[in-house]
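quick one before i forget lol
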Amino acid sequence: MWKIIISLLCFVLSICVVDWLFSQHLLVDNKSNSIINIFLTMYKQALEFRTGHYFVAYASTVFATVCGYHSEYNSEILVTRPLIMEWPRSLLQVVVHWNAPMHYWLKKYVFEEVLKYGNKNKKQRNRFIAVGTTYLVSSLLHGLERRLSAVLLSLAAYTYVEHQIRTKLASRFPSTFSYYAKNKYPRHNSKTYLSSLNQNNWFFWCLNLMFTILNIIHLAYLGSVIDMSVDNSYSTTYQESFAPWSRVSYFSHFIMLIMFFISILL
């Protein structure tokens, strides 16, 4: 019952409440060039898309339950986790919990299969190729839609770079910062992102908060381009399709590039 309520709530948020809240109460103006206004505009567009996805995800779990589907790993059918998506401690969490069944399928049948055939002496290159292939397959499954493909491939690069940085931080500060904790579903052979050996350490909390804020900005930036009110036919120019990104000079991609160089130096 509660899933039906959440599904309908997300539907209402997606089609009217988010736009009403940002336009009427936060006074978001699409034509204003102030930094705060630009960020709120991007966040509004991304939030509308995400809440629409939550509606579909929860509705699908309701229909699956009604049709008698049961998971062998968990009594509760899980597709997405909105709270994790809206407060993302890591982009890896976003990738896993945006669409959990699809993530599991891509990981098992694409990522792990590609990883098998890599050179055992070049693990980093193998992982990079496996990640790229996985997101390429995901783009194909989405019909190679221009904006979605750009978002997916960007997210692949973002996630890989963040993974590299946080892995190296974990190796440098093992008593403060541990990267992974085992998932409670061991048969999935998956992991839960980011636990700490010292939860009261100020460095741990500051680092987590920094990554969370950065991830919120990244998701607002990436999601802003998926504005379904904008025509995306093949006659539409690149500039028109990616106007929200060009408006802010692709700053999020440059942040990712800086983080990539930092990961090399660590």
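fyi The two ends are 49 Å apart (CA to CA).
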